[in-house]
């Protein structure tokens, strides 16, 4: 079996040539990422354009067979990939973290291979018939994030490849090794030029957004960067799928059994140490159960082991980078200065490493505070009191973002009624952030547009063609 060291050695650049990549927990250098340029990007796109017709000509069955073989290879290398991911990104091996993410890479690759997409008959009357077929777009440019670097890259590349496109990927500057390792396994099975990773800086990302020879751009990241991609791609009219920031609201309805939902609620908030676009970021709780929810979350936060991700006991890790650490610290400090109550946490945890921050529950806070209005993207939850459900829905909707949301209740009918009124691309009931490779996922408002996963995800990386007679 290929070891992690072998995978890392095969992708890392020589010291002094590549850019050093630190361990997220210890900040020790674990490898050196290649430093690709815009010229490298241009060559990769030329090669992808050249390779695309033959890749498309293989047909769905053969491309699906190849993707299934890739999924098998990912399974065989899962532990090695998880260790590399844990070190570079920071998420622990256990819990819904590194091993979970690598398993998701395999699952989403298999789903892209197995999901049928047949021509659709949209009109038929006598001799008249209209069908919608789905052809490859051509070359896809994919720009990925640092929080779930492997999994989200698979969301971008697996359906694109299945539909007959070739792909050029730019990983985050913070987590390039994980994506390079993932692509190395994919490329054991793919023809040359079909999938290329360009490990560059923001200049390379900007060049992808404005490139005249890309047919589709897929981006997961901040709303601000998403807006720049929209502007830059205007001349090429490349199709876009944008999964942008989220400030997801959760509403707990009165009379809910808090003990029954506690674990799902905790992980809906703190999965990947809160560094998840569709994590629960602000929680609205009725007066009658406010203190119980705050106390329950604080006890769980204090009990969940925090530390180096390679320690099998830990399930919460560091902030991935200094910039995000500073954002979290700033928002908590601002909440404290504005009179919010820090129930637990609220400070760094330097005994674990320089970028660790204690799991934090903040109470007695309201809308208009930066921690509520902005996306914290870290291990902090503001718990906001409400007395009227209609008012809670209004406040949950009073955001420029709309990626996900959740409603928590013992009454499924009441939960469904409220869920229909909440403005988000996905509204979960008694869970948050539970994604499924068969179920469409995407945001509304400033959280982006376009859907991924399942049939909708395949259509998003294809060109619809109507054949009518």
Automatic annotation (TrEMBL):
Q: Does the keyword Oxidoreductase apply?
A: yes
| All residue ranges annotated as the Aldehyde dehydrogenase domain in the record | 23-466
Q: Write down a Pfam family by its short name.
A: Aldedh
Could you tell me which InterPro entries the record lists for this protein? Answer: Ald_DH/histidinol_DH, Ald_DH_C, Ald_DH_CS_CYS, Ald_DH_CS_GLU, Ald_DH_N, Aldehyde_DH_dom, LUC3-like
Q: Which family does it belong to?
A: Belongs to the aldehyde dehydrogenase family.
Q: Where is the signal peptide?
A: none
Organism this protein belongs to: Microbacterium phyllosphaerae
Which superkingdom, per the lineage?
Bacteria
The UniProt keywords, alphabetically, are: Oxidoreductase
Catalytic residue positions: 243
List the protein's name. Acyl-CoA reductase-like NAD-dependent aldehyde dehydrogenase
């Amino acid at each position: 079996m290929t070891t992690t060291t072998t995978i890392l050695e095969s992708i890392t650049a020589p010291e002094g040539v590549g850019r050093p990549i630190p361990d997220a927990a210890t900040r020790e250098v674990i490898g050196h990422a290649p430093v690709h340029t815009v010229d490298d990007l241009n060559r990769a796109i030329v090669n992808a354009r050249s390779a695309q017709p033959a890749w498309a000509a293989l047909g769905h069955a053969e491309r699906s067979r190849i993707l299934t073989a890739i999924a098998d290879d990912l399974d065989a290398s899962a532990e090695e990939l998880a260790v590399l991911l844990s070190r570079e990104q920071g998420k622990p091996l256990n819990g819904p973290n590194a091993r979970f993410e690598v398993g998701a890479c395999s699952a989403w690759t298999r789903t892209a291979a197995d999901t049928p997409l047949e021509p659709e008959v949209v009109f038929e009357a006598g001799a008249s018939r209209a069908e919608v077929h789905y052809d490859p777009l051509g070359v896809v440019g994919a720009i990925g994030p640092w929080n779930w670097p492997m999994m989200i890259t698979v969301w971008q590349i697996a359906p694109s490849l299945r539909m007959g496109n070739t792909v050029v990927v730019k990983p985050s500057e913070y987590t390039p090794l994980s994506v390079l390792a993932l692509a190395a396994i994919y490329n054991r099975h793919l023809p040359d030029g079909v999938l290329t990773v360009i490990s560059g800086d923001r200049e390379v990302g900007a060049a992808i957004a404005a490139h005249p020879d890309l047919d589709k751009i897929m981006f997961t990241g901040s709303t601000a960067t998403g807006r720049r991609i929209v502007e830059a791609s205007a001349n090429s009219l490349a199709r876009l799928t944008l999964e942008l920031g989220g400030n997801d609201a959760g509403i707990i309805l009165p009379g809910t059994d808090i003990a029954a939902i506690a674990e799902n609620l905790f992980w809906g908030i703190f999965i990947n140490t809160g560094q998840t676009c569709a994590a629960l970021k602000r929680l609205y709780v009725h007066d009658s159960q406010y203190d119980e929810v705050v106390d329950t979350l604080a006890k769980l936060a204090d009990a969940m082991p925090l530390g180096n991700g390679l320690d099998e006991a830990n399930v919460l890790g560091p902030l991935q980078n200094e910039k995000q650490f500073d954002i979290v610290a700033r928002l908590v400090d601002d909440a404290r200065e504005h009179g919010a109550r820090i129930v637990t946490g609220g400070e760094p945890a330097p005994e674990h490493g320089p970028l660790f921050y204690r799991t934090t529950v903040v109470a007695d806070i309201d809308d208009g505070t930066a921690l509520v209005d902005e996306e914290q993207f870290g291990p902090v939850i503001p718990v906001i009191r409400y007395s009227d459900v209609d008012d809670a829905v209004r406040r949950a909707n009073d955001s420029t973002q709309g990626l996900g949301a959740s409603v928590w209740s013992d009454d499924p009918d009441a939960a469904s009624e409220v869920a229909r009124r909440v403005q988000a691309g996905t509204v979960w009931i008694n869970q948050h952030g539970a994604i499924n490779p068969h179920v469409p996922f995407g945001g509304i408002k400033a959280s982006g547009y376009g859907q991924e996963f399942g049939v909708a995800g395949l259509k998003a990386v294809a060109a619809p063609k109507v054949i009518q007679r």
